[in-house]
Amino acid sequence: MPYYRFNFETPLSLETALARVRAITDDPGNFHSSFFFRSSMVPLIQLLRRMRREDEGGPRAVEPAEKPSPLFWGEVGGDSFRVRRKINYRNSFLPLVRGRIHPVIGGATVSVVMYLHPFVAAFMVFWLSAAVHFVWHNLSPARYMQFGMFLLFPIIFTCGAFFFEALKARRLLEDALK
Hints:
The protein is built from four helices and six strands, in the order E-H-E-H-E-E-E-E-H-H. With 178 residues, the chain is of the alpha+beta class. The protein has a six-stranded mixed β-sheet with strand order 1-6-5-4-3-2, with helices on one face. Mean pLDDT is 81; it is low at 31-40 and 61-65.
């Protein structure tokens, strides 16, 4: 299963680096915080309210500058963090991110590990086990296409989707801790 580990240096102190990670991380909230309405409908509702005010001919309200939206959901504590990227769409292959910040002379080293959610990894192991069983017992030259569909495609798709999101999360973390 996909697993991505990397380290990078930052000129920031341990406390400053943790403060920056906290600034881009939102509290995971409760069970309902990840549902569709809360994550993607709020900006749409705000836009509709603004349009209604303009259509009524009233003065165009100047809204205060909004605080930038956090980039991650998760927890930051001690010298470590556990987060996942905050997205407005469904993606089972979104990596879970664990990091630890180590102080060094002239800054800090950030060690990060990204991995699949355990339920997604368990499902993929089940799927691939069933596919191997099917292909192994029914393999013939006419069934090579099934081999590709049931074994290679899920592996390629899982790794591609995971690393696509992992590289985005890496870039966001590195940019925040420059």
